[in-house]
């Protein structure tokens, strides 16, 4: 992973003005993979310039996709032929989301070899549901030497009831059956926005996938998909991070280019704490300047519940709110790498049986290190509110999910310095 220079933040300043939210990383990644299903060109608007996007582009390039950027966030992808059906460990280990190339390759080429995805700093992330769904549809699947080898021996048919709500396995299962003459039914499917956006994209190319956004999804295979043009949804996790940053700095901030409906669980919680939120069709105003915030309890669950991907940032906010708050992550019980770093900044957090008990108070600047993407975002939130200077190392993790963050935070009044990553220029 590219090493980046640390970010320096002098905190204690209010944020102000408008922040234009980037397009969604976690929606864009599966849509780029889903473009493997058509031999025609597709033009995607709203692709954020992030290191994860460049990694998935390397992976699909290995499989046969040519790409060209048209302006800052528009990407044209074209996969006339699949050139490889094996994705090596060196590529898959860089990003867990890449495991869904298995479903796309099964659909388009009838076979796939994909390495077990890499581990993650915040705990065990199994792929058993992906494997069980494929097998339920009649796919032959062997696991050998850290690789999964899958073959379509007949049209995919049957149904699978997921044992938990999983975004990635739902996407993988949909992709595997979207081409061909079979029909599969997914029960207890994820209703996450990133599943719905991938299905909307595929259906816009001629796929026949019904029920996305409900717990039962039916995929009727089609012979081929056409090319097309699609705009990816806004990034609700980036928007959520900025809402939380506004609350932590007791600021008034307007987010533009958002879908307020995707952020309801967070808006409800912040409102309960004393933050005023005003929603319009694609803007969201957060006002934390009117009086004291109150502590609260958070339990993360799958969408549309409170998202795990803003749990560390929310914990950072709660570390600034006097009183006792309790945070439990039911999606990733061990998503806790932010805790030790926040305590360097004066946060009082005790972890017991995967639960954070937070006594809010004042934070101060300190040297800290991000160990994963949202832990890094939590450190940015804490640093923006803390007295004095915080130096955040491990920026390569934050850069996975936030485009030109230092520059965009400066534009809303933060005192942030970092040599900007040269990703876009270097990797086109
Ligand atoms: C690139 C991307 O979009 N990543 C997001 C995606 O990850 P990802 O798709 O990997 O997460 P899942 O929704 O699959 O995981 C949800 C839960 O199911 C468990 N599980 C999942 C699959 C499986 O085969 N077996 C199993 O036990 C996981 O360990 C976790 O506890 O959704 C997560 C949950 O919203 C987010 O935190 C990630 O940011
Ligand atoms: C955890 C995340 O991504 P990934 O699933 O790729 O690790 C995230 O975006 O918060």
From TrEMBL:
Binding, UDP-N-acetyl-alpha-D-glucosamine: 96, 125-129, 309, 331
Pathways involved: Cell wall biogenesis; peptidoglycan biosynthesis
The protein's Enzyme Commission number: 2.5.1.7
GO cellular component: cytoplasm
GO biological process: cell division; cell wall organization; peptidoglycan biosynthetic process; regulation of cell shape; UDP-N-acetylgalactosamine biosynthetic process
Matches recorded under CDD domains: UdpNAET
Keyword Cell cycle: yes
Role according to the record: Cell wall formation. Adds enolpyruvyl to UDP-N-acetylglucosamine.
Name this polypeptide is given: UDP-N-acetylglucosamine 1-carboxyvinyltransferase
């Amino acid at each position: 992973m590219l090493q980046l220079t640390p970010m320096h933040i002098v905190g204690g300043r209010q944020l102000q003005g408008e922040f234009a939210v980037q397009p969604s990383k976690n929606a864009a990644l599966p849509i780029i993979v889903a473009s493997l299903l058509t031999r025609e060109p597709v033009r995607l608007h709203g692709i954020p310039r992030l290191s994860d996007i460049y990694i998935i582009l390397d992976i699909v390039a290995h499989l046969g996709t040519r790409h060209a950027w048209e302006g800052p966030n528009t990407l044209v992808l074209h996969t006339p032929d699949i050139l490889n059906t094996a994705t090596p460990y060196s590529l898959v280990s860089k990003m867990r989301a890449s495991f869904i190339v298995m479903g796309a390759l099964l659909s388009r080429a009838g076979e796939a070899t994909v390495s077990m995805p890499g581990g993650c700093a915040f705990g065990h992330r199994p792929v058993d549901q992906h494997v069980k769904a494929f097998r339920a549809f009649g796919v032959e699947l062997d696991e050998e030497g850290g690789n999964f080898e899958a073959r379509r021996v007949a049209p995919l048919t049957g149904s699978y009831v997921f044992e938990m709500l999983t975004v990635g396995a739902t996407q993988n299962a949909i992709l595997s059956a979207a081409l061909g003459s079979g029909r599969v039914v997914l029960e207890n499917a994820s209703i996450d926005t990133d599943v719905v956006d991938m299905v909307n994209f595929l259906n816009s190319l001629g796929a026949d996938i019904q029920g996305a956004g409900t717990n039962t999804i039916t995929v009727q295979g089609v012979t081929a998909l056409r090319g097309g043009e699609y705009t990816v949804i806004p990034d609700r996790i980036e928007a959520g991070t900025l809402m939380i940053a506004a609350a932590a700095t007791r600021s008034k901030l307007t987010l533009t280019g958002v879908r307020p409906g995707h952020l309801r669980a967070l808006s409800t919680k912040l409102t309960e704490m004393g933050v005023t939120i005003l929603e319009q069709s694609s803007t969201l105003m957060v006002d934390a300047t009117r009086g004291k915030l109150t502590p609260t309890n958070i339990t993360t669950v799958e969408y549309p519940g409170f998202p795990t991907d803003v749990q560390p940032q929310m914990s950072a906010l709660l570390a600034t709110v006097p009183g006792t708050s309790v945070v439990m992550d039911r999606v990733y019980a061990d998503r806790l790498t932010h805790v030790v770093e926040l305590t360097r900044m004066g946060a009082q957090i005790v972890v017991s049986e995967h639960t954070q008990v937070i006594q809010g108070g004042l934070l101060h600047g300190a040297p800290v290190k991000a160990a994963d993407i949202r832990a890094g975002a939590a450190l940015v939130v804490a640093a923006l509110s803390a007295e004095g200077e915080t130096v955040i190392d491990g920026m390569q993790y934050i850069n996975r999910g936030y485009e030109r963050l230092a520059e965009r935070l400066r534009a809303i009044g933060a005192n942030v310095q970092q040599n900007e990553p040269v990703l876009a220029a270097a990797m086109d």
